[in-house]
Design goal:
The chain is an all-beta fold. The protein has no helices and six strands. Strand 1 and strand 2 form a beta hairpin.
Length: 73
């Protein structure tokens, strides 16, 4: 199955979390204007492979996209 990402706005942070049985997967993010939408510029969030939640500062950019990526076994 596919993991569900939970995104919560807390003060000046966005908290992205996912089920603990997906520890070992990488959280990837891209930030684009809404007029562009999804693209290919994914970046892996440092340290995300060893946890199931990441705290990120809120950006003024209008759109952030997240995905979990399973590294090759």
């Amino acid at each position: 199955g596919r993991p569900t990402l939970t995104v919560v706005n807390a003060s000046n942070l966005v908290i992205v979390s996912w089920p603990s049985n997906y520890i070992g997967w990488q959280l990837q993010m891209q930030v684009n204007p809404l007029s562009i939408g999804l693209s290919t510029n994914w970046s892996t969030q440092t340290g995300s492979v060893s946890t199931n939640s990441v705290f990120l500062p809120i950006s003024t950019n209008p759109a952030a996209f997240f995905r979990l990526y399973s590294p090759a076994p």
